[in-house]
Specification:
Elements (H helix, E strand, L loop, with lengths): L2 H17 L13 E2 L7 E2 L7 E4 L1 H7 L4 H5 L5 E5 L3 E5 L7 E5 L2 E2 L18 E8 L3 H4 L6 E7 L7 E10 L3 E11 L3 E12 L15 E13 L4 E15 L2 E2 L13 E2 L5 E16 L5 E16 L5 E15 L9 E15 L3 E17 L3 E12 L5 E12 L3 E12 L3 H4 L15 E14 L4 E13 L2 E6 L2 E6 L3 E16 L2 E13 L12 E11 L4 E11 L1 E5 L4 E5 L2 E11 L4 E8 L7 E3 L2 E2 L4 E9 L1
Parallel strand pairs: 6-9
Antiparallel strand pairs: 1-2, 3-8, 4-5, 6-7, 8-9, 10-11, 10-39, 11-12, 12-13, 13-14, 14-17, 15-16, 17-18, 18-19, 19-20, 20-21, 21-22, 22-23, 23-24, 24-25, 25-26, 26-29, 27-28, 29-30, 30-31, 31-32, 32-35, 33-34, 35-36, 36-39, 37-38
Length: about 625
């Protein structure tokens, strides 16, 4: 379906519906809901695991245009761009983080990763980053953490329509429209967006051709309250994206120059199509002590490179969940127990067809004790069709020391299944390995959160440790590549620090720091996992509160990556990237905004051989009515 086709569908639904940065965020906010904190919602002040929540106001006021740009400022999160955006949490691999969009898993079953560039930030209302092993609640591929993304919803207490248009360097053009309405029974949200750009030439060749990008999305979701006890929720998302990409020199050896590794390929294009949807039914028991939920979700699409055979993929999930208040109704119980039953089927169609099914069961117990102690404990069993079954667990503790200080600690195990490509494989120079076993991990962290200066400032410190066994890595065998389970343990140890403050009325500041020591089984530093990452953001109000301007800087140091000529890890030069953002309220319903990315036009690499984008400028207008 083309963008005009998506638009026609959106307009039809819109008609039917009508008829029927904050730069500094407090690290510790009482009673802030973490929707993906477990099998059921939980408040942040009782949550024992490490989490970062980015809400709608922060997304809008950031002035940024991508999910990856937002996540780069989160301590413990690394995003590197080498043709695709690879996201890692606390030094885990890019396929160790589960990506959810409205509760639907969106990673490719083929590779286990998700291209963050496929997400239009204008469609998003909330991003939750859960750090550390989460497999006991979310299953395989959540060993490093979970990124849970919630799109715009209709819970606005009336009717609201927003629109934006944006222009920028590299011939960037973007526009979007969203409609949200809440009524007595029906809440509905609909958004349409499109972004095109001539892009940036990753090859950095003299006279090279920029890698063009064109993406369009449609998102629809809603909730219908059948009665006081019965609720239906539904969602649908469609995306189409075309992006140019450059070639890599292969084979590539010591006689080659580094500048020749990525070579300009003006006729290369990748075509992505995504469709995802979900339908859920929630029934509250009489008396409010029990709740039942049934949910079906499916994500699928196509990925094609040039005229090669496309990869058609899908993932279907059916879940049943039941929650009971052990000592009273759910809205007052201090002890609850939740049970989950789930079946998931993944498919991949290329020159051959592959599929596998996993059946799972999970339990989560929560307790809130007198004196400020909260406990969350989870267990899960996965019955894998293709390899050994897995059992995972986690435990989270939160203890309040008065109103302004909280201690927390968590531990758990994780599992990552081999991807379908690793297990079956189907292209030249790649040898599949059907004997692979799942990667397994154990992780733990301890943290303290404290508010001070009459609540105007907050600080959060977390120490973490993670160990991965049977890590899957690619090895070169006779000129071919084959995935294997590495012997020994891969480790990640480190610390995360967040400090935010309202220095005075109209001036906010946020500082983030991550120290990471990631090691391969042989003791060497793991590639693309920087030792030090520092972020600083300042935001100041201007023009009697009608304007707001932001300054942000990110410094990365102590990173290594594989030199493709020698297959040996070498240092990547330290770098700093500066950005500016600004907005001005033209009226109470219209706002002018702008940003400058890489203000100083720094030349740097996040992956060996790939030059990161240079300076870019964008400005736009958004309106709300």
């Amino acid at each position: 379906m083309t963008f005009p086709g998506l638009a026609r569908v959106g307009v039809s639904v819109l008609a039917l519906a009508v008829a029927a940065p904050a730069a500094a965020q407090e690290a510790f906010v009482l009673d802030e809901l973490v929707f993906s904190g477990g099998l059921t919602p939980i408040t942040a002040d009782s949550f024992g695991r490490s989490v970062r929540v980015i809400d709608t106001a922060e997304i809008e006021e950031s002035g940024l245009d991508s999910v990856s740009a937002l996540l780069r400022a989160v301590p413990g999160v690394t995003v590197s761009n080498g043709g695709t955006n690879q996201l890692r949490i606390r030094g885990s691999e890019d396929n160790h983080t589960l990506i959810l969009v409205d509760g639907v898993e969106v990673q490719l079953p083929s590779s286990g990763y998700y291209e963050l560039g496929n997400l239009m930030l204008s469609d998003i209302a909330r991003i939750e980053v859960l750090k550390g092993p989460q497999s006991a609640l979310y299953g395989a591929n959540a060993a490093g953490g979970v990124i849970s993304i919630t799109t715009l919803r209709g819970d606005v207490g009336g009717t609201e329509t927003t629109a934006f248009v944006e222009l920028g360097t590299q011939n960037t053009q973007a526009a979007g429209l969203s409609f949200r309405q809440s009524g007595e029974r029906l809440d509905i949200g609909l958004s349409l967006a499109r972004r095109t750009s001539d892009g940036f030439d990753l090859s950095n060749d003299v006279g090279g051709t920029p890698d063009k990008r064109d993406s369009a999305s449609l998102t629809l979701n809603g909730t219908y309250r059948v009665s006081d006890l019965v609720t239906l929720d539904f969602g649908f998302r469609a995306l189409e994206r075309v992006e140019g990409y450059d070639d890599l020199t292969f084979p590539f050896g010591i006689a080659n120059a580094k500048a020749d590794y990525v070579i300009d390929a003006p006729n290369n294009f990748r075509f992505d199509t995504e469709r995802q949807g979900h339908l859920g039914l929630t029934v509250a028991g009489e008396g409010g002590r029990v709740e039942h939920a049934l949910r079906f979700a499916r994500a699928g699409g196509t990925q094609q490179f040039n005229a090669f055979t496309p990869n058609d993929f899908s993932r279907s999930q059916l879940q049943y969940r039941a929650t009971i208040g052990l000592d009273g109704t759910l809205d007052s119980a201090r002890h609850t127990l939740t049970a989950l039953l789930e079946t998931e089927t993944e498919t991949l169609q290329n020159t051959s067809s592959f599929n596998r099914t996993t059946r799972s069961g999970a339990l989560e117990y929560r307790a809130a004790f007198e004196g400020g102690l909260d406990v969350q404990a989870g267990l899960r069993f996965d019955d894998n069709e293709s390899f050994a079954d897995s059992r995972t667990w986690n435990l989270g503790l939160s203890y309040a020391l008065g109103e302004d200080t909280r201690l927390r600690a968590s531990a758990g195990t994780g599992v990552v299944n081999p991807t379908l490509i690793e297990q079956f494989g189907f292209f030249n120079n790649y040898i599949a390995n059907p004997n692979l076993t799942p990667e397994r991990s154990f992780g733990a962290d301890v943290g303290i959160e404290h508010r001070f200066w009459d609540g105007r400032a907050s600080v959060e410190l977390t120490l973490f440790s993670n160990t991965i066994t049977d890590r899957i890595d690619n090895q070169t065998v006779g000129g071919n590549v084959q995935p294997v389970n590495l012997a020994g343990e891969s480790t990640q140890r480190g610390a995360e620090l967040s400090l935010s403050a309202s220095l005075f009325d109209g001036l906010d500041a946020a500082l983030g720091y991550t120290y990471l020591d990631a090691r391969d089984p042989n003791g060497s530093q793991t590639e693309r996992k920087p030792r030090h990452t520092v972020t600083l953001a300042l935001a100041v109000d201007a023009f009697d509160g009608r304007g707001r301007f932001g300054f942000n800087v990110r410094h990365v140091a102590g990173m290594v990556d594989e030199d493709q000529r020698t297959n040996v890890n070498v240092p990547i030069a330290d770098y700093s990237v500066v950005g500016l953002t600004g907005s001005y309220d033209l009226t109470d319903k219209a706002q002018l905004y702008g940003r400058i990315d890489n203000l100083l036009d720094a030349t740097y690499e996040e992956n060996w051989g790939f030059v990161a984008p240079g300076r870019s400028l964008a400005f736009g207008v958004r309106t709300r009515f």
